[in-house]
Amino acid sequence: MGSRQNLRVDCYSSCILNCASNNYHAKLVNISLGGALISVDGDVLNELHVGDQCDLMLGDKPDLYYTKYTCKVISQNCFNIGINFQGITH
């Protein structure tokens, strides 16, 4: 992913990725001011690709989130997705 501009903090918290109106439960591995690394399994790895837009919601209940982060996928492997924050919705 190249050199990072922001310090990343490990957290291992539940989160939800919303892509194409589908919610995928995942784990937030680490986070910084500019982006995050998300641990996922299942179909989301087949549906998301580098360059795709998605939303990140912290927590594990999509109807109770307080903030939604609009993101762009910047990296992907067989277990993790790297995202870059594009904007925030309250």
The 3D shape can be described as globular
Distance between the termini: 29 Å
Unreliable segments (pLDDT under 50, ≥5 consecutive)? Answer: none
Overall mean pLDDT: 86
Radius of gyration: 12 Å
Strand line-up across the major sheet: 1-2-3-6-5-4
SS-derived structural category: mainly beta
Number of strands: 6
Number of helices: 1
**Fraction of residues in β-strands:** over 45%
What does this structure look like?
The protein has 90 residues and is mostly beta strands. It has one helix and six strands, in the order βββαβββ. The chain has a six-stranded antiparallel β-barrel with strand order 1-2-3-6-5-4. It is globular.
Features of the shown structure:
single chain, 90 residues, mainly beta, 6-stranded antiparallel barrel
Topology (SSEs and partners):
Elements: E1 9-19, E2 22-31, E3 35-39, H1 44-47, E4 53-58, E5 68-76, E6 80-89
Antiparallel strand pairs: 1-2, 1-4, 2-3, 3-6, 4-5, 5-6
Short description:
With 90 residues, this protein is mainly beta. The chain contains 1 helix and 6 strands; from the N terminus they run E-E-E-H-E-E-E.
